[in-house]
Design goal:
Number of strands: 8
Largest sheet: 4 strands, antiparallel
Radius of gyration: 13 Å
Low-confidence stretches: none
Structural class: mainly beta
Strand content: over 45%
Helix content: under 10%
Strand order of the largest sheet: 1-2-7-4
Order of helices and strands: EEEEEEHEE
Number of helices: 1
Mean pLDDT: 92
Distance between the termini: 18 Å
Length: 97
Amino acid sequence: MSNIVVSAELDKKKDTSYKGILSVSNNSSNSISNWSISFKCLSGSNIQSCKDFDISGDKLIPNDKKNKTLEPNFNKKYKFKGDGDMPTEFTVNIDTP
C-alpha cells in the first residue's frame, strides 16, 4: 500500500473544459522516489496540463526537482486543466528503479 495520497477536486467547469486542483501528500516518515499518477478519463476527455508534471498518455510524471522525491509529510496542491470532464479516478504508481 502506498503512503502517497492523491485526490482531485473540480475548481471550474465550462461547457467543454474544466480546471481542477490535485492534492498530493506523503503521509509516511520516508522519502518516496520514482512515483507517478495514473488517471482515467471518459472518452473525449483529457488533461491538457498540470503544473510541475509532464503528461504521458494517462500518466502524470513529476518534472520538478521539488516533487520528484516526496519528502516525509510532503503536502502540495497543483492546478490542472483539460477538455471534457475531469477524471474521477487517480492512482499512485511507485516504480522500482
